[in-house]
Amino acid sequence: MPTLLVERLGLSIAQAGTISAGTIVANGLGAFSAGFLLRKGIALWVVISIGFGFMGAAAFGIFNQSMPAAAVAALATASLGVTGILAASIYATAPSFAPKPAMLALTLGMVVQASHLGHVLGPPALGLCVERLGWSSAPALFLAIACAGIAVAVGIRTVSRAG
Asked: Which of 35, 79, 81, 117 has a C-alpha 20 to 30 A away from that of 29?
C-alpha cells in the first residue's frame, strides 16, 4: 500500500504512512465485525465470498491510474475493512471443521499455515506482477486471488451442507 501511494500517486511517506495506518484500523474493525455477522446467522461461505468478492472488485479502482489519491485511499481502506472479516470468521468457525475435538489444534494449525502462505507469497507476487507488467496488471492478480477465495467458500458451503 505505501509503495502504491508514494510511487504511483506521489504522496509523501508521511501521508502514505497515515493512510496505511487507517487501513490497518479498518482491517481490525472488519475482524471485529466478523463475530457480529456470524452471530446474525450469516453462513461462513457467504462471509468469505463477500470478503474476497469485494477485494477483487475494489482492486480495479485501487489500481486505476485515473483514480485520485483520496479515492484510492478510501477504496483501499474499505477493501481492507471488508477483508478483515475473513481471518476472524475462519478462526471463529474452525472448531466446527475439526474432524474430532482432539484434532482442533491441527485444524487451527492448518488455517494459520494457509494464512501465512498468503502473507509470504502475496507481496512478492504483486511485486513481480507490477515489475514486469506495471501497476495496471495488479487487478488481474487480485481477481485471481478473489476467484480462488470464492472457490474455497463454495467448497466450504458444500462441506457444510454434507455434514
From this structure: 117
